[in-house]
Amino acid sequence: MALADVRPLQEGLPFGVRIGALTLEILEDPAIRKEIDDLFIAHGMIVFEDVEQSDEMQLALSSCFGPLKEHPVKAVSRVDSNRLPGVIEIRSRRGQGVVEVEGKQLSHWLPWHFDHCYNDELNRAGVLRSVERVEEGGITGFMDGVALYAAFPDDLRRRIEGREVIYTLSTQYDELKFGRPEHYAMIEPKPSSPEFKAQAASMPRAIHPAVWTRPTGEKVLHVSNYMAQGLVGEENAGGDALLEEVCQTINRLGGTCSYHHKWRPSDMVIWDNTRMLHCVSGNNPDEERLMYRTTIAGDYGLGRWEQAPASPATADAMA
């Protein structure tokens, strides 16, 4: 048995596919599960269309790609840790976490980034579905790091290759240091619990390469605008200028090697977190939006802490 409905994600894009007609019964077939994972390895992301919108289906799809991993930040809301291990809730609440971008106020806007950049380990992937949608905005963008590397200006690519980027768990909009839009301001901060602040303060800085090579041979440009603090050994005006140029070039190329997904009630999406960047367009601050995400375990093995965790208790908090 083979998948009956596999299509390109979008005409002209060198990454991504769409898969339709999946059911829980079909996902019991080991050959189908392997075919789905092989497509994911080759294409970097999959949009699953017209699938059952249930916790069971999200977990069944997620299990095609490996075991689930708990989110490394303990303060992130879990859906139901006993029944649905590894499923987190991403909610945009009215009037919270508001930023002004190019003259428009938006809730839950996020710049180009990869998940868990502030950690020494990256998760392999995430599976996302929309539980509560908004009419306008709420679009998730995805950018392929392989295509991004190929599209980068030759001189800039040579200057950033071989360098490493430092990241911290800094989520507030006024903490965005690199890649800011030209007209940008925080209007209302994101909610931040004492537990989150304590964990963020206890974590050492994480380091990841700006460019890495996949086992299949392709080079990936993999820089997160969000939470970036500087370049290793070059936290100075020259290093900051280079990283800013890289982040602004990522912003500029977002229109040429990216895909922007408007959520439908029947969609789920998976993306390769070691290959892809993603962003969120934000939505009207008067509206609410709710997403459920699973986190797939796995790591590319190239991240590290700048310093060892201070104590066993700190290490446990970051597991």
UniProtKB/TrEMBL annotation:
Keywords: Dioxygenase, Iron, Metal-binding, Oxidoreductase
GO MF terms held by the record: dioxygenase activity
UniProt entry tagged with the keyword Metal-binding: yes
Keyword Hydrolase belongs to the record: no
Domain TauD/TfdA-like span(s) in chain numbering: 6-295
Annotated InterPro entries: AtsK-like, TauD-like_sf, TauD/TfdA-like
Recorded family membership: Belongs to the TfdA dioxygenase family.
PANTHER family reported in the protein's UniProt record: ALPHA-KETOGLUTARATE-DEPENDENT SULFONATE DIOXYGENASE
Protein name as it appears in the record: TauD/TfdA family dioxygenase
Organism annotation: Novosphingobium album
